[in-house]
Amino acid sequence: FSLVIGAAYALFDSARSMTDRSEFEAAIHQEARTVLEILKGDLQGAYGSDTLYKPSLVGNQAGGEDTPRYTLKLTSVNNPTTRVTTPEIDLTTTNYYIDEEPSTEQVGLVRKKDKMLMPASTAVRSDEGLEEIGPNVSYVKFRYWDGASWSETWDSTRTNKLPWAIEATIYIKKAWKGDDFYEKFSTKFWLPMAAETPEMKQPQ
After folding, report:
1. What SS3 string covers 16-44?
2. For 96, phi and psi rounded to 5 degrees?
3. Biggest alpha carbon distance in the chain?
4. What pTM does this model have?
5. CA-to-CA distance for 144 and 123, rounded, in angstroms?
6. H helix and E strand count, the chain
């Protein structure tokens, strides 16, 4: 009887551990999907026009090779807001970076949206518009496709053009039974405003 009970308990404990691990992995993958969808929605709205606003997208390298903490700042068109009672302005300046500042409540990957049409005299708090979108994201890396090759930095204020595509890679920290490790998630997407010709080369 003891042997049977012991075997049954071991089987139950193993099944419970597998369930806990599956739920843990599902939560990590859900966070990754959410972060990448937010990035895609904002970055595909990157805006630039010779008649209104020049292209404004600046991506810089930061951190080390194994600990990338790249930053990205762009002017983007907000998602449609016709269903909200107080629609937002059309354009915002959005910043993405890893927040390591202990004085802020946010951690991980954050984005900060500044209203472009705000009067210059308006006082803005440093944490205003700051949103935590990936609390478990420890590292982030961006690459930019110019139609021929990938680069790890971009400055449209100098080139006066947007990249055709962007690759976003995030590294989510996972802690399981005392062990810390990272899982990498990556995606590529086009920037519609930068679609100069239909014959653009596909990014590799």
Report:
1. HHHHHHHHHHHHHHHHHHHHHHHHHHHHC
2. -120, 135
3. 83
4. 0.76
5. 34
6. 2, 10
